[in-house]
Specification:
about 325 residues, Rossmann fold, 2 domains, two-stranded antiparallel sheet, elongated, binds zinc ion, EC 2.7.7.7, nucleotidyltransferase
Length: about 325
Amino acid sequence: MAQQVLSALQMPWLRSAYGTLAQSVAANRLPAAVLLTGVAGIGKRTLADDLASLLICVQPQPTELGHLRACGQCKSCQLKDAGNHPDYLFLTANDKGTITVDAIRELTRVTAQATHQSGRRVIVIVGAEAMNSNAANALLKTLEEPPAGTFIIMTTAVSSRLLPTIISRCQHYPLSASPEQATDWLQQHQLNVDFNVLTLLQNAPLALQNFIQSEEYSQLQAFSALYARWQQGEKGALNELKELIAQAPVERINWLINWVSAEAKQAPSPLASQLSQFYRNLLNSRVVLSQSGINQVLQVEKVISYGVLVNRE
Ligand SMILES: [Zn+2]
């Protein structure tokens, strides 16, 4: 489904991070390397792109909220929007899911040359965790001694997969949304979401927006209804859940994990410990399911058989 292009300022949960970054740009204090982190669908790429646009623009304009943003009119903005700005470089994983050392070497080669337009050069690396160790080491040299006027903006949902030496050379901006921010924003887009789904996708509004409009969401709603029947003591509902999970075990086992975990936290004590045990079985099962050569249907059968032991009387 085609999504309209939104700016970070249209995403309330990104405003304060954008504001901080824009102020740093205005004061010429932006660190040469910025790392934006947060779960998938939080808007890291949007924020990276807006920041890059602001750096590239030669006549930034203030918004009603007082933030400085790219004008969208000047020659630099037009070149960037057309994908032709010589001082704007964008990098993300290739078809194989990797950012290669060759790609980084090409970046550093360009970075060593003089800039063309506003005197600034901006490199955006989306999904920086896709750099293999050779690529990361090649980038490290540029991060250690960035040429004047060069800014590197990286994003990642899994900063644990970045080299510590990379992380330590970046100014870190963690991004997140509260359940209220996610719910409000989705409602503005005529979308409603229940609490279970919010937690499942860690309140990431853009991920939620995509998910709610997907076929998978109707499956999740069926799942939720079955879970409620099981909660009310209907053991047969668990068998129907099993069939739903078996259709896409690796993804949907997470649904059950999420529900059982939430319920275990609220249940009275004998039930809570049984649910916690079931939860641990589910976590183990998730590990097994992700391995290759596993009979997934059998594995789902097995883990659900633990659920049957939960006594809800
Ligand atoms: Zn401009």
